[in-house]
Write a structure and sequence with these properties.
alpha+beta; 2 domains; two-stranded antiparallel ribbon; 4 strands
Length: 93
């Protein structure tokens, strides 16, 4: 195998290893978080903003009860907003 091909093979292997590492890091970070309803600001939700919305960034009002945001695990229900506390379940508005 020529030096050029060997260098290319090492570069591809390195890129693959880096991509796998990033995927595992992201998975671990999500495992340490939970969905918290009613705490995101208008347009800043991570997903699930109720009827008439598509997903991330689509909440229509601040602290919308049907929209959630990822927060560190164990902190959701201690978050206080002008509309009340965060919830692990959707909040009826």
């Amino acid at each position: 195998m020529s030096d050029k091909k060997l260098c290319a093979a090492f570069a591809i292997a390195g890129a693959f290893a880096a991509a796998c590492s990033l995927a595992e890091t992201a998975k671990a970070a999500k495992a340490e978080q939970e969905k918290c309803f009613g705490v995101s600001l208008k347009g800043k939700n991570d997903c699930a903003a109720g009827p008439g919305t598509s997903c991330a960034g689509s909440s229509k009002t601040d602290y919308q009860g049907s929209a959630w945001k990822y927060v560190p695990k164990g902190t959701c229900t201690s978050i206080v907003t002008p509309k009340g506390k965060g919830s692990l379940d959707p909040i009826a508005n």
